[in-house]
Amino acid sequence: MKSLTIFTTLLAVTAAKKCIVKAPADDVTDVNAPAADGNIASDDEAANVDEPIADDIDSADEKSDAEAPKGKLPASFKWGAATAAYQVEGAWDTDGRGESVWDYFTHLYPKNVESGDRTNPDSTNGNVACDSYHKFDEDVKMMKIMKANHYRFSISWSRLFPDGVAKKVNGKWNVNEKGAEYYDMMIDTLIENDITPLATLYHWDLPYALHEKYGGWLDYRSQDDFAKYAEFCFERFGDRVKGWITINEPWVNCVGGYKNGPGKAPYRCTGEAPRKLQNDTTGLDLEGGCSYEIGPSQYYKGAEVLPADRAPQRLEEVWCSHNILIAHAKAVNVYRKKFQKKQKGLIGITVDGEAQIPWEDENTTPEELENNKKYANLAAEFRIGWYSDPPMTGDYPESVKQRMGKDMPVFTAEEKKLLKGSSSDFLGWNTYTAHWAEQAKDEDGKLIEPPTEEEASYENSKKDMWDDNCRGRAPGWVCIPPTLGSQAGSSWNTKYGPTIRVGLNWLYNRYKSILKNGIIITENGCAQPNYKVSRANDQVTIDYFKSIGKEEYADAYDESIIEDESNIEGTILHDTYRIDWYKQYLENLRLAYVEDGVDVRGYMAWSLIDNFEWENGYETRFGMTYIDFYNDKELTRIPKDSLTYLAEWFTENVEQE
Ligand code: GAL
């Protein structure tokens, strides 16, 4: 193995805070940047966190402003692509791996996953996926093409601990050794190739055994089980892994899996009158229907024990979020207490969420726009701050607590202490699209008032708020235009480059007194448009952007760029829409750094390769590398044009050593 290029070196200070802080070039950056909330920690408070070493790391590697050419990102910029274990590894039952909730639920309800070839039993799950378990060398070749210096991957908990419970007895872990050897191999291979590993501990693939035992994240015991599993990972891999992400997207994990089921495992849904999901469901059933299969759970220690196999309950996603955030904090605590000083790595969480753009059209008055900005901030506190505030400030945003009233779980004093600053090393942010936001109106066009104190509840918490990337929804979650940007290949996925700049500013302004090593974009990317997504009426969107003087976002596309599976050499490999996506988003990221002074330190494109796109199966392609999942037994990796485009962008826009 080569000498280690440790993550800390690559986390060298970009000096963004000190460099070239100009007035924003466009009002896009200040649309909803909030002044710090009352509950945001001051510098002093943030420094209180028991974690002194990130500062040392900073100063050791700091580059002077003079060395960073104006307009370029610094040489220390972390550049790479991301994947997740269940989406790429395959080998679902190889070498002693245990089942995750994704194995279990996709096997039980195969028709809830899209597939173009229902005769192929592997087309509706991650059984084989990209078979990265056996083909990792080929993935590395793709990383090299894009000139990646980092690779973000996730570790499958049930590959290491098939029943989810990690234990160390007499100095020996009960680990599935073969599984651990796979990650040893991956990590070593990356380092030999000068690619720094950035490892995510949890990307939605909870061991099924824990779901059966206590309902997974709905039970407080998940916190300690996660922290123990994390401890094993730090101990085993931490000599080589210097960048850790605890949890990927708590919002999607909890809202997708415990509220909006059956899209995401474990297929719980708490919408109105949930129907019990039948395993003979015909076709993709996203209109309702949930799994009742679950173990007996206790939301918190001492709480009532909820029986096994119960119907989904109100507030499940709220409790899932609560437990997962505490689990994150406990894992960080283990790392800081036992490993960080010696291993000198950094640890943080990855949250997701759309930046919120205040709605504006030619009739919007200045007063209305001001009010919409206020609502954009509020919407961002609900969508992002709910998950990003606790690991920074130690608590939920005031607005969320007030509006949720007694439906909001409360962190104990000890939990708050653990949470506060638990992502101060860095914050990971996954960003794809944007939302418009404004104060909601009733049917007569009258503004809806915020909930009063008595009204505060889960159901009322957002009654006066409106946010979406469309101006409305038709049945089947079809966008009513104008949409915020053009429609990419997934219903929620629209292309609006400024969102990354708006969101980076929002997060950075909120947490700059706490963050020690800035923000990393841990995912961003798009599915090339395809025929499966119903397209919004482009003309309405184009007219809208023209009417507000932002013609550059009126980028409709014609049929010629839509993915055509029968002609791989065409729009699949020549993915011009995706190239334009990266161009727009990366330019906005660059501006956030050079113009706004946002301390953004990395960008991981989603995704390195086409892979198992959850409920969309293999039908929606986010990759920069093509795989013919149905016909090519070898699963040959074929680079798309976007992969080389990213290499070019990197060379031109990132300072080269
Ligand atoms: C993210 C998720 C990824 C990937 C991506 C594209 O929310 O973390 O696993 O699926 O979206 O949908």
UniProtKB/TrEMBL annotation:
The signal peptide stretch is 1-16
Q: Where is this region: Disordered?
A: 30-49
Q: Which GO terms describe its biological process?
A: carbohydrate metabolic process
What Gene3D superfamilies does this protein map onto? Glycosidases (3.20.20.80)
| Keywords, in A-Z order | Glycosidase, Hydrolase, Signal
The protein's GO terms of the molecular function aspect are:
beta-glucosidase activity
The Swiss-Prot or TrEMBL record describes its family as follows: Belongs to the glycosyl hydrolase 1 family.
The protein's name: Beta-glucosidase
Recorded source organism is: Piromyces finnis
